[in-house]
């Protein structure tokens, strides 16, 4: 009978210490622009604590955290990027258990954010990976219906592909489809001969499709494409025959080892998963929260039927990280590493 009271008292101490620390530094790929501002302002309004956001590509930010740790110079409190990179940071000993976060004990989750049993990694959104097309360049009824349709000569030289060196989107699809026995290595080897345009980052991938520099986007992610659709870009998703790839770890977030503001960081992470925090994040980025008590903020034109999914678990995210780290898919697709 005393457990809830004790837990409440301990959390109150964390809140008090967090306010004394007064700051959280977030190294992030996803909390950019209006999204980061909405979250930072919401948290500061709730607790009076400042959020500093340092943005960049996941691999670059992880290397920065490694360098700072080796130098004994601890700046980052928390790290947000793809679960592929966060799982690697965990394997390298750069993350810690977030401890008991009260909001994650609530029965409000359609997909629980906790991704690993040790409590290091938390998915921030329900991310869907599939094909996207530019509707100004593809006539109605002529859309590719599956990944296999992309082997047709009519698509040669007209598709943009995420670099497997810097972006895990396509690698996640590669691992998922292989795991479910849908697409094998020979398919991707054939696809690599279609004169693919390689985009170095997710933002480049989406921008090229929205601007009409490509006709088809391979392995696009709804959470990054939807803001373009929301702003009127002539883009739509394809519910591919192979099944859409669904993950809660694209992106994911973790607390960095030796966080200089440990209490404020735990409080931030807990607040982020409240209804208020999730609304600030997902409404701004037009995406889907894992909470059941919030609507899907995706624009109508970006909604994807969820009746044929290939769910990605943490083991598959770890495999995605291995495939990327060892350059397996990079070699398969013939992408030059510079």
Describe the structure.
The protein is of the alpha/beta class. The protein is 39% helix and 17% strand. The protein contains twelve helices and 13 strands. It has helices at residues 3-21, 33-47, 58-70, 83-91, 169-179, 185-191, 202-210, 222-230, 262-272, 275-285, 314-325, 328-332; strands spanning 23-28, 50-55, 78-81, 95-96, 122-123, 127-134, 159-162, 197-199, 216-221, 235-238, 244-247, 252-256, 309-311. Helix 1 (3-21) crosses helix 9, helix 5 packs across helix 11 and helix 7 (202-210) packs parallel to helix 8 (222-230). The longest helix has 19 residues, at 3-21. The chain is globular and about 65 Å long.
Q: Termini distance? A: 61 Å
Task: Tell me the quaternary state.
Answer: single chain
Strand content: 15-25%
- The string of secondary-structure elements, in order, is HEHEHEHEEEEHHEHEHEEEHHEHH
Output the number of helix runs. Answer: 12
Structural class: alpha/beta
Helix content: 25-40%
| Overall mean confidence score, pLDDT | 91
Shape: globular
E-strand count: 13
Largest sheet: 7 strands, mixed
Low-confidence stretches: none
Radius of gyration: 20 Å
């Amino acid at each position: 009978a005393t457990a809830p009271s004790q837990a409440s008292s301990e959390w109150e101490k964390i809140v008090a210490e967090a306010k004394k620390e007064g700051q959280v530094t977030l190294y992030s790929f996803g909390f950019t622009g209006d999204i980061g501002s909405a979250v930072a302002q919401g948290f500061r309004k709730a607790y009076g604590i400042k959020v500093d956001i340092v943005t960049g590509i996941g691999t670059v930010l992880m290397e920065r955290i490694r360098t700072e740790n080796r130098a004994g110079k601890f700046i980052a409190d928390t790290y947000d990027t793809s679960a592929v990179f966060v799982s690697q940071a965990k394997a390298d000993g750069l993350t810690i258990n977030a401890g008991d976060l009260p909001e994650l004990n609530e029965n409000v989750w359609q997909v629980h954010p906790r991704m690993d049993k040790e409590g290091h990694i938390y998915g921030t959104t329900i991310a869907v990976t599939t094909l996207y097309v530019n509707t100004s360049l593809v006539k109605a009824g002529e859309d590719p219906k599956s990944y296999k349709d992309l082997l047709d000569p009519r698509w040669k030289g007209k598709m943009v592909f995420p670099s497997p060196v810097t972006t895990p989107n396509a690698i996640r699809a590669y691992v998922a489809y292989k795991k479910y026995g849908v697409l094998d290595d020979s398919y991707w080897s054939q696809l690599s001969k279609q004169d693919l345009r390689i985009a170095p980052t997710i933002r480049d991938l989406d921008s090229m499709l929205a601007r009409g520099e490509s006709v088809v986007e391979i392995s696009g992610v709804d959470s990054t494409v939807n803001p373009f659709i929301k702003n009127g870009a002539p883009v739509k998703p394809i519910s591919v025959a192979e099944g859409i790839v669904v993950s809660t770890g694209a992106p994911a977030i973790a607390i960095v080892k030796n966080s200089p503001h440990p209490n404020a960081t735990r409080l931030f992470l807990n607040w982020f998963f409240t209804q208020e925090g999730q609304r600030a994040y997902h409404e701004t980025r037009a995406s889907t929260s894992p909470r059941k008590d919030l609507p899907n903020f995706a624009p109508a034109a970006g909604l994807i039927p969820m009746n044929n999914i290939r769910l990605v678990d943490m083991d598959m995210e770890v495999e995605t990280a291995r495939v990327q780290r060892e350059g397996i898919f990079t070699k398969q697709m013939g992408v030059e590493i510079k």
